[in-house]
Amino acid sequence: MNFHRYFNVDRPPVETCVVGTGDFGRSFLTQGLRVPRMRARVAVDRDAQIAAAALKASGADPERIRICTTAAEAGKAFAAGDFVAADDLALVVGLPVEVVIEATGHPEAGARHARLAIEAGRHLAVVSKELDSVAGPGIAHMAAARGLVSTPVDGDQPSLLIGLVTWAETLGFEIIAAGKSSEYDFVFDRATGLVTSNGRTEPVPALADHWELGGRAAAEIVASRAEAVAALPQRAVPDLCELLIVGNATGFAADRPDLHAPIARITEVPTLLAGKAEGGLLSGERRLDVFHCLRAPDEPSFAGGVFVIVRCTDRPTWDMLAAKGHVVSRDGATAMLYLPRHLLGLEAATSVLEAALLGVSSGAVAPRPHLDLVARATQDLPAGSTLAMGGHHHTIDGTTAELVPAVALSPEAAAPFYLAANCRLVRTVECGRLITVGDIEIAPDSELLALRRYQDAAFFGATAAGKVAENA
To answer: What residue stretches are annotated with the Oxidoreductase DRL-like catalytic domain (predicted)?
Structure first.
């Protein structure tokens, strides 16, 4: 694809507003100074000083950064060509920006920002996977009803993987699985017997016995590696959350609620994430999964990249491609096609430009709620306690995440993970049980709840939504 031709629209650059100036927002602002067809002059964070600092760090002229506390101040600064920093989207959403990038990572705040952007007639780029996992299809439906676009963003794995899946489908490939590498690699130094992952180093000399796949059964070596590194985390909520977004865009499903998540070397992935009939782990096709990249210190990472596993229907062609270095399974039946990157805000502009210039999303044409991310208690959770969301990965202590088929909210239904986050339990949840909507106290004015009810009404029918409104 020639991107210059794709975005060849004769008009002024697209003006944007980014809400949330953490890693993604900051990288978006930095690249925004360099994208010819886009401007990134407006930043919002919980403290305007944080937004201003992010603008300065991005390379904006400090003399042109204005901290604005009213809509009038913001309007004056924007008209003068200055950079605008604010502590509330409501102060700046009336500026002549075309796309709001929601990158806070906070589901309740993100729901409010989504509503404000759509009500103001702005396209929405949803970076916050926590928000998307609860009500992404509903937000897209709401935006489309107003002639607007809600889109995931290139730079994050969901949009990149949706692009790779649809590329493969366009070319007629038979897709067995799609996924991404996990948040962190497992880097094994065979000389010392040490494994490093996510800043932790553990002695695991036994892993040397499981370094090579060879002719071993997929399930056996995956189990052996998992046992060897049992001291290190092997599941991360963000992985499941991101794959949910892909599932809602493509209809792909998880093979098991917590994913297989094998620890695998890059060359092994098409062997392990193949059907059981082909010696792999999967019970069907069009499955979503993740792998933990096992590598030596001097080997390249998969870098949180995305992949599809496809069937090799023409063996001579794939034998030729394998000889050229493409990653083909040990029996030659499947191959992995992949993008070993996700550049966060540095490559998000393509999604922003698609929304503003072309009126299309980088995700599904019309996403549907196929999956829900839910929480299962890993310990007894007493009534009256709060399901506090915290940490870099926005986890909830005492729970683990799972992917299940999406349903409308009801007291008996499992509560979406990030709808339950920061809610108080009204009754004890025993270890091993899914947390249900009836277990939690949701603030009646929750904007996230309102968006989810809208989604349920749009996709599961007014009767289901009415039941939720009465009982949730």
So the answer is: 241-348
